[in-house]
Write a structure and sequence with these properties.
Layout (H helix, E strand, L loop, with lengths): L1 H13 L3 H6 L1 H7 L1 H8 L11 E2 L5 E3 L1 E11 L7 E5 L8 E5 L3 E8 L8 E3 L20 E7 L5 E6 L6 H6 L4 E6 L1 H4 L9 E9 L1 E2 L2 E2 L5 H6 L5 E4 L2 E2 L1 E7 L1 E8 L6 E5 L5 E6 L2 E9 L2 E3 L4 E7 L8 E6 L13 E11 L23 E6 L3 E2 L10 E2 L11 E5 L4 E7 L7 E5 L5 E6 L15 E4 L4 E7 L5 E7 L2 H6 L2 E6 L1
Parallel strand pairs: 1-16, 2-5, 3-6, 5-10, 11-17, 16-24, 25-29, 28-35
Antiparallel strand pairs: 3-4, 6-8, 7-9, 9-10, 11-14, 12-13, 14-15, 17-22, 18-21, 18-23, 19-20, 19-22, 23-24, 26-27, 29-33, 30-32, 30-34, 31-33, 34-35
Helix pairs in contact: 3-4
The chain binds CU-O-CU linkage (C2O) and copper (II) ion.
């Protein structure tokens, strides 16, 4: 903690760039270890005691009334922090709906600034999507009527007012949105107490309170916190029975990437990602999850001894990036009872019709590696852009036809930063990743709405645009990058 404070102060005082330090780190690391550590250090995670029972947000069906407001919550054990929330406390309720429903949500803006809600991953009419221009003034309200026309999946919701998204999400405004359908129900997956939402977010505190104050360097790397919260609580645990569990995991952090794994040699059995179930279960020992992405995972605790503790951790994934240089613990599972279970892992989960590049009427190259200079840019480092453009609310940058299939090549091959790219209003499939990790990873084999693109990578995605015409946004889900302008409007005509 104190070391971390020093690092922030050091960077603030000296004007040195963590970004520059990271870029040069492969060269500096061995030669000049001490000096490098002073500048390019990660925000070291502060581990907790994992002795608080995991908070599970309330579930609401069909009609939700959300009140964005200032609130107080015990984010850190036995300490009160002021937060923002959609209810009382932290975060918002989990909204659950069936395919075919129309969900009605009223949003009351109890903040002193504009807000709205984007329904991340849902395919909705333009005026329901939560475009940054559709906001409620302080004291105002918005009404959303959401026709659920898509497959089951773990979606989520959060504010989207331009320039303020990161701060509002960081302060606590976010919630899960689960869609169920008949295909999923037929699998009899673990449910009720055996189906658990896991919203992972890192936070930075000053004293007892959340502090959102990114430096210019932190707008480049992303604002990384030292405390890992699950469902708004630092270091909780869940007592589990020795049976199968379904974890719906959301990375709701503004910028932090996790490399999730279980201790004790337990695999993660991935059954779904952003846009619902995969074709078949994918068993992995670890999986990378970027901001905005979701994972639907089964864990088999059966046969595990009573009293055994198993941790969900994030493993190191890079020696050079400030994000990937530390392993840490996210949540503890404590097996404390036996229960008989008939559940058997299905070999097939879902029918996914594969889109292929031959169906595409157009291929767009999208350069996400460029920063552009701008008055008010970051210490000469420029601002984040998409194809050299910074977000302009009134300018449409790409026009696509309703019902048409396109390939978008998201190109970070010249880039040095991590960009989780999100396209509103559509679900896509991942065709290929070249450079960097050079492969489509297990969780990317289904429908996606957010795709993590590491430095040096180029990813090709394919999608068929829906019949909903209008202007939607496409942006980086590193929310510091998004607020910095790494977002464009695209129009479906
Ligand atoms: Cu979850 Cu436009 O974002
Ligand atoms: Cu980015």
């Amino acid at each position: 903690m104190s070391f971390q404070m020093k690092r922030r102060d050091f960077i603030k005082r000296s004007g040195l760039s963590a970004f520059t330090a990271w870029m040069g780190s492969s060269m500096i690391l061995s030669a000049c270890h001490t000096e490098e550590d002073m500048i390019g250090e990660p925000n070291w995670i502060v581990e907790g005691s994992f002795d608080r029972t995991l908070f599970i947000p309330d579930v609401v069906k069909s009609n939700a009334s959300l009140h964005a407001q200032h609130s107080v919550s015990e984010l850190l054990k036995e300490r009160s922090s002021s937060t923002l929330s959609y209810a009382n406390g932290v975060l918002g309720p989990t909204i659950r709906a069936n395919r075919g429903d129309t969900v009605s949500v009223s949003l009351q803006n109890g903040l002193s600034e504009e807000t709205n809600i984007h329904w991340h991953g849902l395919i909705l009419p333009e005026n329901m999507d939560g475009h940054p221009r559709d906001v409620a003034a302080p004291g105002g309200s918005l009404h959303y009527s959401l026709p659920i026309i898509q497959r089951s999946g773990t979606y989520w919701y959060h504010p989207h007012p331009h320039g303020r998204t990161a701060k509002q999400v960081f302060m606590g405004l976010a919630g899960m949105f689960i869609v169920n359908d008949a295909e999923e129900a037929a699998l009899s997956l673990p449910s009720g107490e055996y189906e658990v939402p896991i919203i992972i977010q890192d936070k930075h505190f000053e004293g007892n309170n959340l502090d959102y104050s990114p430096t210019e360097d932190e707008i480049m790397t992303g604002y990384l916190g030292e405390q890992i919260l699950v469902n708004g609580q630092h270091a909780p645990f869940l007592s589990v029975a020795s049976t199968w569990y379904r974890l719906r995991i959301l990375n709701g952090s503004t910028a932090r990437v996790y490399n999730l794994a279980l201790t004790g040699g337990k695999p993660l059995i991935i059954i779904g990602s952003d846009g619902g179930l995969l074709r078949t279960p994918e068993t992995v020992s670890s999986i990378i999850l970027g901001p905005g992405e979701r994972l639907d995972v089964l864990v088999d605790f059966s046969g595990t001894d009573i009293g055994k503790e198993i941790f969900l951790v994030s493993n190191k994934f890079s020696e050079f990036n400030v994000q990937g240089r530390q392993s840490f613990t996210v949540i503890k599972f404590k097996v404390d009872r036996t229960v008989a279970s008939e559940f058997k892992l299905p070999s097939t989960l879902s029918n996914i019709i594969e889109l292929n590049a031959g169906q595409a009427v157009n291929t767009r190259s999208i350069n996400i590696a460029q920063t552009v200079s701008d008055e008010g840019g970051h210490g000469g480092m420029g601002r984040h852009s998409i194809n050299g453009r910074i977000f302009n609310m009134d300018r449409v940058d790409e026009v696509v036809s309703a019902g048409s299939t396109e390939v978008w090549e998201l190109d970070n091959s010249e880039g040095d930063e991590i960009h989780p790219m999100h396209i509103h209003g559509v679900q896509f499939q991942v065709l290929e990743r070249t450079g960097g990790r050079n492969q489509v990873i297990a969780s990317e084999k289904g429908w996606k709405d957010t795709i993590l693109i590491m430095p040096k990578e180029k990813v090709r995605v394919i999608m068929t645009f829906p019949e909903y015409k209008g202007v939607f946004v496409f942006h980086c889900h590193n929310l510091e990058h998004e607020d910095d302008g790494m977002m464009v409007n695209y129009e479906i005509v």
